[in-house]
Amino acid sequence: MSGDIRSYRGIEPQLGEHVYVDQSAVIVGDVQLGEHSSVWPLVAIRGDVNFVRIGARTNVQDNSVLHVSRISEGNPDGHPLLIGDDVTVGHHVMLHGCSIGNRVLIGMSAVIMDGAVVEDDVIIGAGSLVPPGKTLKSGYLYVGSPVKEARPLSQAERNFLPQSANNYVQLKEDYLLHVQQIS
């Protein structure tokens, strides 16, 4: 099953093996999705003025928007969007030209802006705003608008990060087997 997958200026999105893209999702241009990743209903991923790279076993949940910043005189590389492995992008998240490490959970309705860097093993609380250029260090929970370091992650939370991603790998496998479009 695949959504609305579109080329832009002759560049087509590249989907890894065993990827699920809901039929209502839109993926445009220079976008690469790693194996076993999933893109859920009403997600928009635009790799038009820069590129998007999404790692393995990463899930992008309903109503999220993923975009990039263009190359300009003041920013010669622009800001691509880079997302690592085993990342959970919650419902209604906005990711714009930022870099997300591995084993990160981004809470519902969070916004992460251009040039922000989220290191490995981080949880970002629902509704948080990560301002442009901010770095979130590995091993912490961050909350608020603008985001602030709340506390170190517990071992249970660290263990949950890959488990969260794996839950979506299992769910997308079920969807690949059992979801059928009804006309």
Automatic annotation (TrEMBL):
TM stretches of this protein: none
Alphabetical list of CDD domains matching this protein: LbH_gamma_CA_like
Species: Pseudidiomarina maritima
Keywords on record: Transferase
Domain of life: Bacteria
Protein name: Carbonic anhydrase/acetyltransferase-like protein (Isoleucine patch superfamily)
InterPro entries documented for this protein: Hexapep (IPR001451), LbH_gamma_CA-like (IPR047324), Transf_Hexapept/Carb_Anhydrase (IPR050484), Trimer_LpxA-like_sf (IPR011004)
Entry annotated with the keyword Transferase: yes
Pfam family, one: Hexapep
Gene Ontology terms for molecular function: transferase activity
